[in-house]
Amino acid sequence: MNQVCAIIGIGPGNGLALTRRFAREGYQVAMLSRDIDKLKEWEQDIAGAHAYQYDATDGDQAREVFARIREELGPVSVLLYNAGAGVFKRADETTLDEFEATWRVNCHGLLAATQAVLAQLREHDQASLVVTGASAALRGRAGTAPFASAKAAQRSLAQSLARQLGPENIHVAYVVIDGVVDLPRTREAMPDKPDSFFLDADAIADSIWFLTRQQRSAWTFELDLRPFGETW
C-alpha cells in the first residue's frame, strides 16, 4: 500500500518544501490548493506529487477531494494542514467579513479536512495530523485581531483533536512558526534583514517530518520553530 501524505495549502515556501520532503521519503503527496496551474507545474517537477484543486474555506469540497485522493493514491496516513492566510488589522479597523474569512481558513478549514480524512487516518496502525500554526496563537498583538484570534482557536482545536485521537494512535501536533519564512517576496519587503533573520522552509519541513516519525511514548504536541535571532 502506498504511503500517502496530503498537504493543504501549497505555496513556494512551507507547502512546497513539505511536498519535496515527503516525496523524497517515498510518499505519494497530494498537493491541495486553489491555484491549480501552479500545482500542475510543481507536479511535473516533483516525482510523487499530485495536484488537486481545493479551497480550504469551502468545507463542502472536503469529502469529495479526499475520496478522490483515496481512490487515486490510497488512504492518507499523514495530513499536513498548512493553510493559514489572515488579516492583520486592529479590532476597530477590520470588517466582520474579514474576521470571518480568517476564521474560515484557519479553523473551519481544519475541521472540514479532519472530518473528511479521519476514516482514512484510522485505517493505519499509526497516522499523523500536523497543523502549521503561528506565534499569534499564543499572543494577540494590537494589529492582529482577526489573525491572532483565528490562530488561537485553531491551536485549541488542534489540542482537542490531539486528546481525542491520541488513544487511536493518531498523532496530532501544532507547529508554532515564530518568524518570517525566507521567500522572494519577504526578502523584497525586508531587504535590510540578514540571512539569519529568516526561517528556512526546508528546515521547517525537516522538523515536521520528524514529528511524523515520533514514537507514541514521547509525542510532541506543540513545537516552536524560530531563527536563533528572533526575539521571544
Automatic annotation (TrEMBL):
Superkingdom, natural source: Bacteria
Coiled-coil residue windows: none
InterPro entries recorded: NAD(P)-bd_dom_sf, SDR_fam
Protein's recorded name: SDR family NAD(P)-dependent oxidoreductase
